[in-house]
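I have a small job for you when you get a moment. Can you supply me with one protein entry, sequence and fold together? It will help me judge whether the discrete encoding reads sensibly. Write everything out right here, beneath this request:
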Amino acid sequence: MKLEIRMMIKYASAIVFIIAGILFNQFNIGTNFDIMGSVGNWLIYVGFVSLAINVLRTMKSPKKKPDERAYYIGAKANRIVFVAIILVAFFIMVIDGIKPITLSYHLFMSYFVCGIVFTYFIAYSILNTIN
């Protein structure tokens, strides 16, 4: 019962975000938002992403209880990703000092976050096969 109420709240909040975004766009509220056009577009984007996450969570297989091995592999993968972030940040600072990077900030950060997720996935997969 409690789980169903939480899921209903999550779906309702996603729909509220989408409706609020449509209303913001309709009434031209926050239209000169530099990052992605308008605040309404961001609200619609967040609403659809949260809706997709909720749908995917309900469609996944039954919950498995993680054991100590999974926690151990996750912790080691986190450690590898942290070291990779520090090294990549250092090399980016050195490269930026030699030749300035002219990539826009939001594009740079999106690539950086995708790189972090990709590094974690690779590290977890390799550690899972080794251990």
The chain is about 80% helix and 0% strand.
